[in-house]
Design goal:
- By secondary structure, the protein is of the alpha/beta class.
- The chain has an 8-stranded mixed beta sheet with strand order 3-2-4-1-5-6-7-8, sandwiched between helices.
- Helix 3 crosses helix 5.
- It is elongated and about 70 Å long.
- Bound molecules: guanosine-5'-diphosphate (GDP).
- The site of guanosine-5'-diphosphate (GDP) has 20 residues, from helix 6 and helix 7.
- Keywords: Cytoplasm, GTP-binding, Hydrolase, Nucleotide-binding, Ribonucleoprotein, RNA-binding, Signal recognition particle.
- It comes from Tepiditoga spiralis.
- Its EC number is 3.6.5.4.
- It catalyses: GTP + H2O = GDP + phosphate + H(+).
């Protein structure tokens, strides 16, 4: 993961290490390397510009210029800025206070939505909750079967109603959840390969009906800037609460996790780190900043 960006960053640090006295030019060169590596990692251009301005300002301060280990000082600045950009040290929690509480997952097809729904259900089950999964992805019948299979694996019931009308499924699922005393309801909604208006209308309709406390978009970290643009569109239409970024175990370049918060103003709340049902964890920005820096 993040291999390219790590290699590039280490080049920038090398230029600063082992130098007796560091000059403004050395730092500016290092900042330039960092800028190129971010752009190559598919980080949004505006994000890169902001980030670089801020790093430059701090790195040209006395602390780095006077430091005996300018490379270390520079890395420290980069790490802090990255953490800040990705949302601060403490991961943002899901906030569920109603009973039952509703979590609605949205996102494009293939992003890992159905898998993440099951992962979330398992997470809550382990906390002693009584989750219900709702299969409202009527656009892709296989997704309903997939959720039912996953639900069986983790011993969480899956409500799939008539498997045709998403809004009706959600409405009936609400009654069912209340009757069966479920305290968390996780709704898997329809995704498409690209955003389309019918899908958005359906999602808005479900959102307005159920008023979920958490509406989370599932985003594939391997998709780069396309994913960030799509995230912005989803957020503009649905006012998300945050993101679940998946496939962080793969060889993603880093662009999504570095850009998405700045571009949308919404936090990454959870990270998907594998295909297994337990591979979901709070998003620790400092850990990822550490990994990006190698
Ligand atoms: P959906 O179309 O959005 O519902 O996506 P799925 O849940 O069906 O996931 C698509 C593929 O991504 C499946 O093969 C999943 O096993 C895989 N997947 C989902 N999350 C992760 C993850 O965090 N890491 C990895 N490596 N694969 C994942």
């Amino acid at each position: 993961m993040f291999e390219n960006i790590q290699k590039k960053f280490s080049l920038a640090f090398k230029n600063l290490s082992g130098k007796g006295k560091i000059s403004e030019k050395n730092i500016k060169d290092a900042v330039k390397e960092v800028k190129l590596s971010l752009l190559e990692a598919d980080v949004n251009y505006k994000v890169v510009k902001n980030f670089i301005d801020s790093v430059k300002e701090k790195a040209l301060g006395e602390k780095v210029l006077e430091s005996l280990t300018p490379d270390q000082e520079f890395i420290r600045i980069l790490k802090n800025e990255l953490i800040e950009l990705m949302g601060g040290k403490e991961p943002e929690k899901l906030v569920i206070s109603r009973n039952p509480g509703y979590i609605m997952l949205v996102g494009l097809q293939g992003s890992g939505k159905t898998t993440s729904a099951a992962k979330l259900a398992k997470m809550y089950k382990e906390k002693g909750k009584k989750p219900l999964l709702v299969a409202a992805d009527t656009y892709r019948p296989a997704a309903i079967d997939q959720l039912i299979t996953l639900g069986t694996q983790i011993d969480v019931p899956v409500f799939s109603g008539d498997k045709v009308n998403a809004r009706k499924i959600v409405k009936e699922a609400k009654n069912y959840a209340e009757k069966m005393l479920h305290d968390i309801v996780i709704i898997d909604t329809a995704g498409r390969l690209h955003i389309d208006d019918d899908m958005m209308k359906e999602l808005e309709d479900i959102k307005n009906y159920i008023k979920p406390e958490e509406i989370l978009m599932v985003v594939d970290s391997m998709m780069g800037q396309d994913a960030v643009r799509t995230a912005k569109d989803f957020n503009d239409r649905l006012e998300l609460n945050g993101f679940i970024v998946t496939k962080l175990d793969g060889d993603s370049r880093g662009g999504v996790i570095i850009s998405i918060r700045h571009v949308t103003g919404k936090p990454i709340k959870l990270a998907g780190t594998g295909e297994k049902i337990v591979a979901l964890e709070p998003f620790y920005a400092d850990r990822y900043a550490g990994r990006i820096l190698g």
